[in-house]
Amino acid sequence: MNQNVTTRSLNVDGREVPINGERNLLEVIRKAGIDLPTFCYHSDLSVYGACRLCLVEIEGRGIQGACSTPAEPGMKVRTQTAEIREIRQIAIELLLANHNQQCPTCPKNTACQLQDVARKLGIRKVRFKPLHEPEPLDETSVSLVRDPGKCVLCGDCVRFCAEIQGIGAIDFAFRGHDAAVLPAFGLGLGEGECVNCGQCAAVCPTGALSPRPEVDAVWQALHDPAKTVVAQVAPAVRVALGEIFGLPPGTVSSSQLVTALRRLGVAKVYDTAFSADLTVVEEAHEFLQRKASGQRLPQFTSCCPAWVKFAEQYFPDLLPNLSSCKSPQQMLGALCKAILPAELGIPRRDLVVVSIMPCTAKKFEAKRPEFARDGLPDVDHVLTTQELGRMIEEAGLRFADLEPGSFDLPLGFKTGAGIIFGNSGGVSEAVLRCAVEKLTGQSLANPDFYQVRGEAGVRFADLSVHDTRLRLAVVHGLKNARILAEKVRRGEHALDLIEVMACPGGCVGGAGQPVSRGAAARQSRARGLYDADKHLELHKSQENPFVTGCYQRHLGEVGGHEAHQLLHTRYENRRSPAPSEPPAHGTL
Amino acid sequence: MTHTPKPDCAGRRLTKIRDILDRHGRRASRLVPILQAVQEEYRYLPREVLTEVAAALEVSPARVFGVATFYSHFAIEPKGKHLVKLCDGTACHVKDSIPILEAIRRRLGLKAGQRTTSDRLFTVETVACLGACGLAPVVVVDDQVHGQMTPESAVQLIEDVLAREVAP
Amino acid sequence: MRAERTPAPSPGAPAARRVVVCAGTGCVAGGAYDVFQAFAAQIRAAGLSVVTEFRPEPNGHDVRLNPSGCQGFCQMGPLVTLLPEGVLYTRVKVADVAEIVSRTLLKGEWVERLLYVDPATRRRCRGPEQIPFYQRQQRYVLRECGLLDPGSIQEYVHHGGYAAARKAFRELTPEQICQEIVRSGLRGRGGGGFPTGRKWEAARTQASPKKYVICNADEGDPGAFMNRSVMEGNPHSVLEGLMIAARAIGADETLIYVRAEYPLAVQRMRQAVADAEAAGFLGSNVFDSGLALRCEVMEGAGAFVCGEETAMIASIEGQRGMPRPKPPFPAQSGLWGRPTVINNVETLVHVVRVIREGAENFRKLGTPASPGTKTFALTGHVVNTGLVEVPFGATLREVVFDIGGGVTDRRGKASRDGFKAVQIGGPSGGCLTREHLDLPLDYDSLRSAGAMVGSGGLVVMNQHTCMVSIARFFMDFTQRESCGKCVLCREGTRQMLAMLDDIMEGRANGETLALLEKLARAVQKGSLCGLGKTAPNPVLSTLRYFRAEYDAHVFHQHCPTGQCKALAKPAIDPVKCKGCTACARKCPVGAIRGEKKQPHQIDPAKCIKCGVCAEVCKFEAVVGV
User: Fold this and answer.
1) Is B61 a residue whose pLDDT tops 70?
2) The domain that contains B161 carries what CATH number?
């Protein structure tokens, strides 16, 4: 008899391990300190059971997948037997036999789970022959590259896109050996419903999906003596870049980051948090106007380009409700292109604006035609956090040893409100810090609005400011956004402001960030941003003196004509028009 | 610039699609029977129609494509006018169905991997089992079951169809 | 029990005359519909009136003419049975009909040339009771298939149909039904042989306001057609079993998932459901019990894997038919997350009998651990191909030799020593050899021999069959039908196929064989679903019983049966060759030379290994191809 049944534990490799509400046996085993390999297990997604790596032997039940087996008290589990080892090795060899094994040139090199598991299992030779026809890269998307020759069909991308983002831009197609992950009709990723959030690439264990690199183009600009390269750095980048260089997630490394960019040859290093402050001022103004008129409410935020494309595709009727403010990236790009040529004394065509973003959708956003003037885009290139890390590595810079540097003025000065834009809830909080003061006419003593912070996929806040009631919703994950937007469409939810971020946790969890599994890293990054807000002197965008200065020198009134020209945009209905009934020709 | 006419689906039968969708209550769970009905109508699943089905059922086109390519009865390419199905179930196989297939394909000049003749007159498929094992080997031409075939008699079936095509 | 072997209880008044034309797929392909029409015309021409619909009290002057489902003896179709004489005519053509009407129907004489001749005794057999193929069977599931008009619910009811369902709904509690099924020891006829009663009990005890029962009629195993025949021949028996299952677990919705290759079965099942609804057997108040029950017939779309329970559920829900890990089992969380029982067609037909006649009666046939009868689709190199039903525990010898009439050779003639193997259970099953001829056919002994009952496909193979090529045939099938979800099945089956190709084409070595076996074991142990777990069985079982044949391919580059063309080395045995020149004349590439009446030779440089020479040689002098 097992004496431990009453204490709810099970036996893993001879050791008793307590069960505390874990979803499945795999989580119990991992909690016991044994890292069973998996490709297709992802704690945020449904259980799939396809990679067959987490197999264990359960007494009386034989070999079972740990991910799909509920943990039961009294189970006797073995994670290592000769048979299991053989099956795992064969599974990896089967994948490797048809895998495009050009590892050194793969974007996932050294961060690839297939590589990692093969190494851990001691695979020295692949005993099977390659049987797949090589397939070309899909480079139709400006944000992502798909390499079918590296896909292990774990389906993490498919499930993320469907279950978390509620899109299903990619799915399994065909079957058996021909099975593949494909966009609809086998078209390119850039030709369908993909909103470029890149979370498929973030969860991809191999290099089958990866952000589309722009490193070469940026080097080219940096090496071109005729060009002046300026950079902007998004808030979420500074709390994640260090991870590439061994710093713990959440460490704020702005000072090394700025120096690194200068050493790479960037002339001016600006902060996207500055234009976030600008966004707050514009967006709060727009919001209060709508609130006063009662029109086009709730107002949806528009900083997240994946959400914007999502809304254009599925909620064209709600587009008037989107804030017309450009995203901070595009505001800063537009400002740079508008004012820097004169200030730096260079032709506009020789000014190159590079953004460093935690995001793959920003690459798409920068290429939207409305964000270009005279054929010159406001933002020329978008690098992800990962790509900047690689450039720093390529330049041979020892990141930790870099002397501290600070952002250039005026476009590098920010308040804490701009910084917290990188977190889900940050935009709402920053707008509240502005709007509440505007409504009350008094300075806000405590700028923190804890109601909108947190991890829950949908959060609501209901505030009364004098006689004005402000009802806010904060969502991350586009499936959550879809559910909420449908309620709004049906008039089921009376709300004033809705913040939408496509990625879990907001930009800190963006797909351009260093690869991490699970939520722990992005939670640390979020804490890093809130701490950075604490450490700054100013916490309200409207108090940013350079924002005020910018209005005085370049933009005129808040929400005025010049500001509209430079800082606001419009949206496009991307819903494919319903086919109309053509006239019948002849007889059927 | 020449205008390429779309396959016979450009919309003239859109009402039929709407009928099919309505008949199944526009429920995503009815996707398989809906696709069966669409294929009945068009003899294959044209991309435009799949897009329409996806929109009506509020599922992603990628998922509809995934379902359409999973089941062997669905064709995403147009099929030939005459459908020749060779049974390669176990009973037919042990009674030498493959030489029959080879003979038919040779007669129709099909290259490796090609299932439909370039004039779209014939599509040749193998099926796992028609459940007519007592008659093995079996060839089905346009839903007509022919049992105890040989390569010669199977080619004769093709010749018969061709003769009817020439002199209707 | 002897009485059970006659085709059916005699319907209605003694003088009732009746012509039953088999309209199973085999007979239809042979022209059964034309034969049916010819009968209608000829009987009328003879001045008798033809009645095609069922009448409970037939008039002695009318002739009832009805199509039936498959009578099993497909080899000899089209089949025509005349009652009450019980005479069975085989291979009936339209031209024979006038004679049958004028002699048998009008004068009571037999048309001798249309009677089946037992090849062993050369005796003409008047009816099934004299034909060895039928004589040795115990037809329960198939009993009424060959007699009833499948389109007539009245006739089914007249024969006691729906009494069991009525009893289940009006007299029995769900517990009692489950207990009776548990007592019967009935095991699922679709493959694994899981006890049906336990499955039901697991679903019955789930507290859920909504439950489902699905009839698995996705008979995808190539070489099996017993479910098809039952649905086409006696659709109401399937529906009745399904209703009992629904009552037993407390479901109010049922679904029949039929393989798309079976359009006639789909049509018959739909008709049966519509007729049962019209009769009040289905609907909002089943048999006035106050209980509701609906039934829907859904067509598959061509995916073998959908025979797997969770894949079938996914398919019904409008998804790709990809299995998901178990647990949870469908009995806990199945269709739309509700408790769901999935039973095979044949299982459900047995359920009717258990409820109608009691568990004890059911257990009288078969073995204690595998009670009841099982249908098998007997095909391949066997004299009598068709559908057979025997009690579990019957031996392979009885099925292949007594019922099947023995093995045929390359030319289709009976061959005394031709037996090589039987493949049973389809792509999930394995091979049985001469040493298993006296093995009782039941779930457990087959499993211990590395095979399985599966759905009951039984393919007989003669000495000319290459077992490596048979393993390849099944592997080709499973790798095409793999859903592509789990690594081991998707990639493993494809690699096994490639290795088998290497073996058959002379590229393999000892390492290939060792790796093939290791891979097969890994796929068997580690795959996600039943399809993957059983996919290696044909390889493992041929490796186990025909290792020497693999070794010959690998180590001697030689296919002992000459079937593997890449390894074929056609040669003419100079002792047997009479120099008749037949081969030289037929050779398409002129590779055979030799003087008349002298032994001929094959030029290996020219030879394309087409095998025509071997086919035309009357002296079996051509070897190695």
Assistant:
1) yes
2) 3.40.30.10
Residue C368 lies in a domain: no
> CA of A53: which chain C residue's CA is closest?
C526
CB pairs < 8 Å spanning A and B: 66
C440 upstream amide cis, omega within 30 of 0? no
Which of the residues in chain C have pLDDT under 70? Answer: 1-15
Q: How far is B64 from chain C (nearest CA, A)?
A: 9
Q: What is the DSSP letter of A448?
A: -
Same domain for C543 and C572?
no
Q: Residue A172 in 3-state DSSP?
A: strand
Structural domain includes residue B2: no
Contact of A463 with chain C, judged by CB distance below 8 Å, is answered with no
State the pLDDT at residue A576.
Answer: 64
Q: How far is CA A586 from the centre of its chain?
A: 53
The alpha carbon of residue A165 is apart from the nearest alpha carbon of chain C, in Å, by: 19
Q: Does B60 touch chain C (CB under 8 A)?
A: no
Is the CB of C483 less than 8 angstroms away from the CB of A65?
Answer: no
Q: Name residues 513-572 of chain C within 8 A of A (Cβ).
A: 515, 518-519, 521-522, 525-528
Domain coverage including residue B129: 82-166
Nearest CA in chain A to B48: A579
Counted domains in chain C: 5
The active-site residue, picked from A326, A362, A363, A414, is A362
Q: What is the pLDDT of residue A166?
A: 96
Same-domain status, C162 and C247? yes
- Whether A492 is catalytic is no
Burial per residue of A24-41, b for 16 or more beta-carbon CB atoms within 10 angstroms, e otherwise: bbbbbbbebebebbbbbb
Q: Which two tokens stand for residue A220?
A: 């080219």
State the best of C490, C497, C517 to mutate against chain A, taking most chain A CBs within 10 Å: C490
Domains and CATH numbers, chain A: 3-80 (3.10.20.740), 89-211 (3.30.70.20), 215-567 (3.40.50.1780)
The average pLDDT across B119-128 equals 90
> Do C79 and C110 belong to one domain?
yes
**What CATH number does the domain containing B37 carry?**
1.10.10
State ipTM: 0.91
What is the Cα–Cα distance from A315 to A301, expressed in whole angstroms? 14
Q: Does C69 touch chain B (CB under 8 A)?
A: no
Domain total in chain B: 2
C184 and C121 in a single domain? The answer is: no
Q: d(Cα C81, Cα C46) in Å, to the nearest integer?
A: 19
* A545 to chain B, closest Cα gap in Å: 48
Which position among A191, A343, A370, A394 bears the catalytic label? Answer: A370
- Neighbouring C-beta atoms of residue C5, cutoff 10 Å: 15
Q: Which residues of chain A have pLDDT under 70?
A: 1-7, 576-588
Do the domain assignments include residue C141?
no
Does B4 map to a domain? Answer: no
- The length of chain B in residues reads 168
**Strands of A167-307, DSSP E:** 170-173, 180-183, 209-211, 228-233, 268-271, 299-300
Q: How far is CA A221 from CA A351, A373, C216, in A?
A: 10, 19, 65
Which residue range is the domain that position C497 belongs to? 468-555
| CB nearest to B62's CB, from A170, A579, A581 | A170
